[in-house]
Fold these 3 entries.
Entry 1:
Amino acid sequence: MENFTPYSSLIGGIILGIASTLLLMAGRIAGISGILSNLIPPQSGDALWRVLFIVGLIAGAVAYPIFGGDMAFLNVNPYQLSDNAHYTLLVIAGLLVGGGTYVGAGCTSGHGICGLGRLSLRSLTAVLIFMAVAVVTVFIMRSVVGG
Amino acid sequence: MFNIISLISGLLFGFGLALSGMVSPGKVIGFLDLTGNWDPSLAFVMGGGVLVTVITFRFILKRPVPLFGREFRLPTKTDLDKYLISGAVLFGLGWGLGGLCPGPALSSLAYGNPKIIVFVGAMVAGIVIAKVLTGTFRKAS
């Protein structure tokens, strides 16, 4: 547990809750997969707020190290794969995450932070399923490739 | 006002994802690696987020219209259908493989890593494929 960061993770999580609260005060659910998928392709009158949210999402991540945040923890390749293998894995993972969150109507933010906040049974079900499947996937990956 | 609120919400969300550690696939895999060198940090992210929304959402949703918008647009489905279940399975599989979910993937574009750009491209392709296969793809209007 040498990488355990309870304080920054808790404060980060509370900020995600505040951001989701703010967007609900504008009438929308802060579900990132939904915000993105409804932009593909953009629909007139419904695109600007989505684009601005995503611009903010990127700018907020840019701001973190500028405000003194430590990015040393960033590890993009946890299974320590070769570049070719890792690119292949990321393409497969990206297709599954994009397709899965569209079909399942939400991801970690929409079902997790917002759906659980609304006490939605659909969201609780989705969260339990994707967490369980992800845990099993990591177990299998660790057994096969190590890292 | 609505659009400015959306921008501010996005800014906070991106900052929160970076601070929490969610933008690091290594951190995500460490959290999901229950039988290995488990790092429980990310439980505090969802815990902290839900702690806020479970309190604030009930007050916000008591209003007939939102403070900064014309109407609430909320999910209307209540049944646990095959789409919800199968979508969550596919997403869990992809999340465990790449260590990236949609929010951290988009916000990590900030750091200019070509691998993240490839992941986001594949994620967009995945959305298009799913829309075409489910017959819900609508042309730009």
Entry 2:
Amino acid sequence: MPTPNVAQSKTPAGDAGRLMSGAEMLLECLQREGVDIFFGYPGGVTLPFYDALYDSHIKHILVRHEENAAFAAAGYARATGKTGVCCATSGPGATNLVTGLVDALMDSIPLVAITGQVHSKLIGSDAFQEADTFGITRPATKHNFMVRNVAELPRIVHEAFYLASSGRPGPVLVDIPKDVFQAMGHYVPVDSIHLPGYKVFTEGHAGQIRRAAQLIWEAERPFVYAGGGILAGAASAELTELVELVDMPAVCTLMALGGLSSSHPNFVSMPGMHGSYAANMGMTECDLLIALGTRFDDRVTGQLGSFAKHARVIHVDIDPAEVGKNRNPDIPIVGDVKHVLQKLNKAVQEFAPEMREAHAPARVAWWQKVRGWAEEHPYDRRHDPNVIRPQHLMDEIDRFSGGQAVVTSDVGQHQMWAAQLIRFNEPRLWVNSGGLGSMGFGVPSAIGAQFARPDKLVIAICGDGGFQMSIPELSTIAAHSLPIKIIVMNNGCLGMVRQWQTLFYNNRLSSVALECFPDVVQLAGAYGFTGRTIDKPEQLAEALETAFKTPGPYLLNVKVAPMENVYPMVPAGGAVYEMVLGPVEPVAAD
Amino acid sequence: MLQTISILLENKPGALLRVTGVLSARGYNIEGLTVAKTQDPELSRMTITVDVEERLRTQVIKQMSKLVNVLQATDMTESPSVIREMVLLRVKCTQEHRTAVLKEAEIFQARVIDSSLEGFVLEATGVTEKLDEFIDVMRSYGESDVSRSGAVAMSLETKKLRLQPPVPTGAGVAVA
């Protein structure tokens, strides 16, 4: 970070009346929004902005690819709940952000992306590095803006932050032409946001909440299905209170892990395609499903028609369009899940003891059933004396983390095993690309997460595929001596695709072998930090301990059994209770 | 089935694209679309006809309402409303059929906009089905070309416009 080299700092904070450039005005806005760090990559049209940044206290992290700026900002946002900020230049810079924007859109992550645009006079002329960023990113964002003149810049930037973080969070992009960065104007403080068509539904319907409380006490087999909204809405404490008040089993989706502590006795596991037997059977056999901040995603529900078919459904979500989208609930409640749960918990407690006790024996029996399922078919975490099983690796990481470390992941088999076997005892420890499933997410999101949580051990668990999409960022990690521990679960192939080819395509393994994985000792060494490869089970505990105890970055390449499959598995389009629990004979695709 | 939606939206750059974009992204086929400014030049009124399964109609309205620039989205198929369309039709006709064509036009309350030796240009408004008939009848007289406006709709009831009031923000205060 260059220090201001002029005696009179031009830092614009609190300097609202002063005539300033659009670039300085943008920094003023960022500062007022509480941004102290952002991730980006400069270019031709953002030169005026980066020039103004030279004198600013806001920290800019130069990544090695714009996609990773978006992923790092998302990692920052996911680890803190604060809005992440990324920046890219026009044309290729902006188009490189797109995957990160869609990722944030799918997972409802608050993100503000600033892109430069060519000079206003050149827009539409196929100018150098011109792309229709506004058009391209419209379906990739919650909302987007193009700034036409410097006077509207502050209003738009503040609106962007408001939109990104309020209601159902999401990415918002602001496209700024070069001449707007250069134009001079006065920063006019924006003390209110006026978006007449943007409705945020906070308070749930009181009558519906009361009815929901009644249904809960009337249920014999209640089951909580908690989604990412629990984290977005900071409703972890309220969720915990609810499951304790009624003493009922709860699952957290891939997006919600840590929303209810993995070590909490009422936590069952993750549900869905690779969820546990107990989670999916619980969903199937419950008579009341309490869905909180979740969207009945196909990876959770499997075949919709047979999902929770005996259950009445209470669905709480802040986005009205999610309520009734995939499943028509019996009690729809549109509102902020934290507010709704506070009221629901109160309503639940207001019921007379007779009412609360009426079905208590049934609930106890239900709990026994769910625990029985969990004992009958626990996740496979067996170790093998001859080869490192991926499950063994995750089991060891879990032991070291103790539910405390920030774990980021890429996408694929390792992601599922990590989600199954690693505990997250508080919210915002588990950082992964859920909805979009973007490979190459693990390393850059760890960068954002480590800047956000310098106090925390940050572990990036990658496959050998996703890791190779992010190798350029080793440079960013080294440049900032970030103590990120990258663990590559190396099975020599694109494991999840290989698993599907094995199970559903007659084991015809097409283009999944990842040959020529680099020597990590040399690779990490080239960036000035330590790398190591292990392939023996007896090395695992010691290697992880060494990696975690070594100051600074560490790259550990763990060669695991290549043909392991993730189980349980709900075949695509199947009902969740039709889980495949373990290895089966390969079948041909239809 | 066809669903007619009336949308009041802010006249902002890209607003039209956002509406059509959401429809296409979610797989709803747009059958007709009209848009023009309202008395308030900051706002536009849009009427869209989409082909959508009955059970998804509420979802379409919710997706429209979610757009930041959309102030109100109403399902006109469900509420008391009038839906009209306009058609401009050029028909070629021979000398001996001219009177018959004019007579037919009168039946459909169509107006003659242009008359030439070749034939006529006619203007008609009405409900979609009536205009379909009009076009069929005129086609029977000779080669014709048609430009249809797509449906415009007006609710028969006053719908209360619920707008979000301004929200105070901390951004007006400089962070120390």
Entry 3:
Amino acid sequence: MSLPRNIKEQFPLLSQVVNNHQIVYLDSAASSQKPAAVIEAMNDYYRTINANVHRGAYEIAAQATEAMESARSRIAKFIGASSANEVVFTKNATESFNLVARSWGGQHLSQGDAVLITDMEHHANIVPWQILSAERGFEIRWIPLTVDGHLDLTELDQLLDGVKMVSLTAMSNVLGTLNPVRKIADKAHEMGALVTVDASQYVPHLPTDVQDLGADLMCFTGHKMCGPTGIGVLWGREEILDSMPPFLGGGEMILDVRKDGFTANELPHKFEAGTPPIAEIIGLGAAVNFLESLGMAEIRQHEIRLTEYAMNSLADRYGEDLRIHGPKNPSERGGVLSIEYRDVHPHDLSQVLDQRGICIRAGHHCAKPLMKELGVGATARASLYVYNDESDIDALIDALEPAGEMFAL
Amino acid sequence: MSGLDDLYKEIILDHYRNPRNRGELDSPPAHRTEGFNPLCGDEVTITFELSNDSVSELRIAGQGCSISQASASMMSAAVKGKSLEEVRELTRQFKSMMSIHGEEIGSEASDLTPKAVFELGDLEALRGVVKFPVRIKCATLSWNTLLTGLGELEE
């Protein structure tokens, strides 16, 4: 089985012409494109059943609630959650991390404690801990990297000593590295720590089962997995979420409010203050349907094949002039290729590629501590998804050479 | 859509390949100030010395794209030897050229047509950057950093 050959046609944006070239979209690690099915699901909601959820007694309000809750159930099943109550909707993965840090961290972390993260984390899994640490005085430790872009676990036992929470990415958004989450989680659990997983780059690209990962909490976002922006997910084991205090307060998250206080709602509503992004939740549900129709195992195989093609073709054409950060073996990484090409600064490279309609990301990818470890200020990153094929890679490869000529030092 | 020729003029690439006043002065006695472009990770470190209210020496270090490096190089050449008042005026003039609507967003300048006090010379080559709004911050990074540095000295 492989992905449908005409899959690009299901993404309206990919037929756009930019700078007189049909668009070549290679920035899905930043945000994926949306299939027509997702866009239509959101339109249908606004056109036919738009109403607030969990309150109206009338027909369309009931339908809106049903559409939202059925999306929650499908998302729960998609990641192997035990129950839909374990799926909390947030704005994005960043908000999910802030929820975990503020709610769980606020309850459990103080001076003398430690949180263990890694050198390849996105700022979303760094700064919320730093904000809390500045108030509480706990320590933040970092798992270092090996030269080939894996986590260096040789000192893991010492690093875990006194740690209450391990929070790590399942796949690096810069290096593409797939981390041994289960192995680290098992060790963390032995030492009495919980594990939060950043699955923003993982859930869209690989079959995901939270039980297999050994996670206690997991954060991911909708817009990198064919869904809309403005919708993220926090998954957590029910007993852990149950024990955590509310994060944001307001409507929807309460059972009762009195002048002398409030009683928090049950899961998952306890963490969903205010009117939720209903259309976005329905859109994310449609995205899950879309990905399941392709098959997550097929998506993973497609991306391994394409990553291998890209790495081999780039090496064949440019040899020593080009370097790709992260693991060399395509089966140990996702389709995220951070490229250094001759002396061309990533920003300039991206600008030149844009003239051919090629979209790549130049910058620090919200991973400045990692940039420092790599000894670079920025990288040029091409990232792959279901709709990419060899022609996209070929376009990228052909466009590098003129950029190199232009900026040769 | 503008072509790349509007952005990457030969004089810009020349400053990029052969940056003027590159390096760092010993600090102290030189004043040292750092600037960051949070969007793309560009970093600039400016060290400078004043004598008789003029910028007598100035060096630029850091890393960044051709636009940020060229702009820093041109700035270093343009401000050396100028009085503080002249540096501020030149900066205002440059940032005005770099603004889409006649003034830098967020600046306090209200004069939409600032009188051109200085010949911008090489700096004119950066005019095309305005057509690429994402890159404006690259071009203004070193200038804003210098302003910060001058402000720190006044405190």
